[in-house]
Specification:
four-stranded antiparallel sheet, alpha/beta, 13 helices, Archaeosine Trna-guanine Transglycosylase, Chain: A, domain 4, 23 strands, single chain, seven-stranded parallel sheet
């Protein structure tokens, strides 16, 4: 099969392999001849699309023809424009879809004393200000001997904030870092401060709320005569506590999995994202939780999600989340459709609607049970929407802060980065999987070669449970672990 027509209403098909001019092709019983060379992941017109008519993919308009597009022509940015605007009206049209029947599953994880499950038992150093990043890095380097027994690793997460911030930015930094301290994958946490920053230790403790002083330790470097020896002593105490935990069987219903895409291509919405969607439905059917973010990459496809909000109250909060992000763009003098990226376009994505319709495939068909603010923890089982931008590092950090034990990251172009939690890279095409085996964990390109998304979703569930049980992802093997904090305002 060289072409796929995703939905019967589509007037374009997607090339599953490079097409040569003059090739005679069939998509869903529609015959067409390629009028020009068309690259894999790009679109071909199945019939004449007149100027001003919608271009339809996924059964949804993804743009408007700028000129008449003849049958067999390449359909892309040269002849299609976005149909998005800054305002839209939304109506609650509730729809439900059946979830698959799934036998109970377990994974070998850690049970924390507060009852939460974890998939890793690591020691984390969280700097409250960028000024102590180098000290945190030195403490990690000099205390690797603590990584023994059931302790899976010792890590820190550098960032440039925690000082010279005001208002909402200051609050978001504080909230995000406190959420990382609370993350169950950290068996012990050292909170490292300088002593003169905006984000004072008193503020941070107030944000953190109750904590177990066996699991969380604090060090203010300006108050220590030798911060390296003081930090090492605290890490020894944390290691003694964290080292008591052992893996045990835990129901898959306790997993929280974040879902993200980046470096997308024209196959993302056909192979990898639907595979993640099928996985999400299976985990939700098991009683687990999944989290979808990247709000700007819902623009143009938000109604696909809104119709699955389980109640009017959840729908109203989802609408507010999307409209706030649109207002954020407008307040900075930006149009809401300034997307996709150059790499997305090279991979076959034409407009933000095109990208968004593919992006939301990761949400499967489950009901949306909750809408979360930035860095707000998951509180309800099922499919959650999380407020956050599309940027890979910012949104992956946001998912971690929301409590995701691990993140599924689909990509058609490839990327080596990782979040603080295991970050499973899922390729949209087999060529990427074979070329960048040091980055990619799971190949969903098989869907373009005949595997059903359902079968790929079953494979992915098996793989996720292996990762939850200790199998290292490529980002973990290469120590690619980073955070990035959302900011909007003035730096003093």
């Amino acid at each position: 099969m060289k072409l796929i027509r995703i939905h019967p209403a589509d007037n374009v098909a997607v090339a599953l392999t490079d097409l040569a001019a003059g090739e005679h092709l069939t998509a869903d019983r529609t015959e067409v001849t390629a009028a020009e060379n068309i690259a894999r992941g790009h679109k071909i017109a199945l019939g004449t699309i007149r100027e001003g008519e919608p271009v339809v993919k996924y059964g949804n308009p993804i743009g408007i023809a700028k000129t008449e597009i003849p049958a067999g022509a390449w359909v892309h940015v040269h002849n299609v424009r976005t149909g998005l605007s800054e305002s839209a009206d939304y109506a609650y049209d509730h729809k439900t879809f059946p979830l698959p029947a799934v036998e109970p599953r377990t994974f070998r994880g850690y049970r924390r004393e507060d009852g939460r499950a974890a998939v890793r038992n690591e020691l984390w150093i969280i700097p409250t200000v960028g000024c102590v990043n180098s000290i945190a890095a030195a403490l990690v380097k000099e205390n690797q001997h603590l990584v023994t027994g059931s302790i899976d690793g010792l890590y820190t997460f550098a960032h440039p904030f925690g000082c010279s911030q005001m208002g909402e930015d200051h609050a978001q930094t504080r909230k995000l870092l406190a959420a990382l301290v609370r993350h169950p994958n950290a068996g012990g946490v050292l909170v490292l401060s300088l002593g003169c920053e905006n984000l004072t230790q008193e503020q941070f403790k107030a944000e953190l709320g109750d904590w177990d002083d066996r699991r969380v330790k604090f060090l203010v470097c300006q108050q220590a005569e030798d911060e390296m020896s003081a930090g090492a002593a605290l890490l020894e105490e944390l290691a003694a506590y964290a080292g008591q935990f052992r893996r045990e069987e835990i129901p898959a219903s306790e997993l929280v999995v974040g879902m993200k895409c980046g470096g997308s291509d024209g196959l993302s919405g056909i192979t990898a994202n639907p595979t993640v969607g099928r996985f999400s439905d299976r985990l939700v059917a098991l009683g687990g939780s999944t989290v979808l973010t990247e709000v700007p990459e819902m623009f143009g496809a938000e109604n696909i999600l809104f119709s699955r909000c389980e109640s009017r109250e959840v729908f109203d909060r989802a609408v507010r989340m999307v409209n706030r992000f649109k207002d954020y763009f407008v307040s900075h003098g930006q149009v809401v459709y300034e997307n996709p990226s150059p790499g997305n376009k090279a991979g076959g994505i034409t407009t933000l609607e095109d990208k968004s319709c593919g992006c939301v495939q990761k949400g499967g068909s489950a009901q949306i049970t909750d809408v979360l603010e930035y860095a707000e923890p998951v509180r309800r089982k099922g499919l959650n929407l999380l407020s956050g931008p599309g940027n890979d590092l910012v949104s992956a950090t946001d998912l971690t802060a929301a409590g995701a034990h691990l993140i599924l990251f689909t990509t058609g172009r490839g990327t080596p980065f990782g979040a603080p939690v295991p970050t499973v890279k899922i390729s949209t095409n087999t060529a990427l999987y074979e070329k960048k085996g040091n980055w990619i964990d799971f190949n969903a390109g098989t869907v373009a070669e005949g595997e059903s998304p359902d079968d790929a979703g079953k494979r992915l569930l098996d793989f996720v449970l292996e990762v939850a049980g200790g199998r290292q992802t490529k980002n973990e093997l290469h120590n690619a672990r980073e955070i990035s904090i959302f900011k909007d305002g003035v730096v003093l």
